[in-house]
Amino acid sequence: MNRRRRIYEGKAKILYEGPEPGTLIQHFKDDATAFNNKKHEIVDGKGVLNNRISEFVFNNLNAIGIPTHFIRRMNMREQLIREVEIIPLEVVVRNVAAGSIAKRLGLEEGTQLPRSIIEFYYKNDELDDPIVAEEHVTAFGWATPQELDDIMALAIRVNDFLSGLFLGVGIRLVDFKIECGRLYEGDIMRIVVADEISPDSCRLWDINTNDKMDKDRFRRDMGGMLEAYQEVAKRLGILNENDRPMGTGPTLVQ
User: Residue 1 has what DSSP assignment?
Assistant: First the structure.
């Protein structure tokens, strides 16, 4: 991949130019970050697991007609994706009170919300990704009202699918984050799901024990992050019980 031009590097992924016009290669790193990179470690094998889990989810979304940027997995760490114009919003769908909404509203973590709630956060690390209202999104031109409707419709459909998928393997989908982008095909533009869907971007709890199986294990210094991601992959049928563990666990970044 060193011969390919690097387009962008984020906290957990690198984008390279793709083999065909309109495509990119998305590389999953082993970096684990929290609190907008204030906490940072290398977790050997995390990128491989997130690549495989995200591939599984995006393949299923494509199969049921939910448009995404995903084309195919290329190797253990890389995916071929369509180039999209990312809308600068993190779209968070919440089913259960956890994380920031529990703190903001004084809710007990684990409380089932009256209905699924969609929140928008402006993607800006310097501002710590502040929560914004639909009025902000349209007033500042980050997305049009129609695009916002399309994003919300996609978020609801993804939530319905993921909730059933994880429930079927004994996992409670507490909340998740997606990003969306504009995909241009000739004169046609449509909104698609982009980025990744993995334990890095979802809160996943064991349905019986409420054990956390997501990045909260890293955020809260609980340990066992890699093992939790492996368990998610095993339950989804991506890893076999006999597969050798990937990675050696976290390494502190100096």
Answer: -
pLDDT for the residue numbered 243: 60
Its CATH architecture, for the domain 85-206, is 2-Layer Sandwich (3.30)
Q: Break the chain into its structural domains and give their ranges.
A: 6-84+225-243, 85-206
Rg (CA), the chain: 18
- If one counts every other C-beta atom within 10 angstroms of the C-beta of residue 157, the result is 15
With DSSP H G I counted as helix, E B as strand and the rest as coil, what are the percentages for the chain, rounded to 5?
Answer: 30, 35, 35
Is residue 24 within 8 A of residue 15, CB to CB? The reply is yes
First to last CA, the chain: 26
**What percentage of the chain has pLDDT greater than the value 70?**
94
Where does 6-84+225-243 sit in CATH, by number? 3.30.200.20
- Angle (CA) 85-86-92 rounded to 5° is 155
* CA atoms within 13 A of residue 50's CA, in its CB half-sphere: 27
Half-sphere exposure of residue 131, counting CA atoms within 13 Å on the CB side?
Answer: 8
Is residue 41 pLDDT above 50, yes or no? yes
CB atoms within 10 A of CB 209: 9
Angle at the Cα of 232 from the Cα atoms of 66 and 62, rounded to 5 degrees: 15
Separation of CA 156 from chain center: 15
The answer to whether the predicted template modeling score (pTM) of the entire model surpasses 0.90 is yes
Q: Is pLDDT above 60 for 12?
A: yes
- 6-84+225-243 and 85-206 share one CATH topology? no
- CA count, 13 A, side-chain hemisphere, 84: 25
Q: Distance between CA atoms of 170 and 207, rounded to whole angstroms?
A: 5
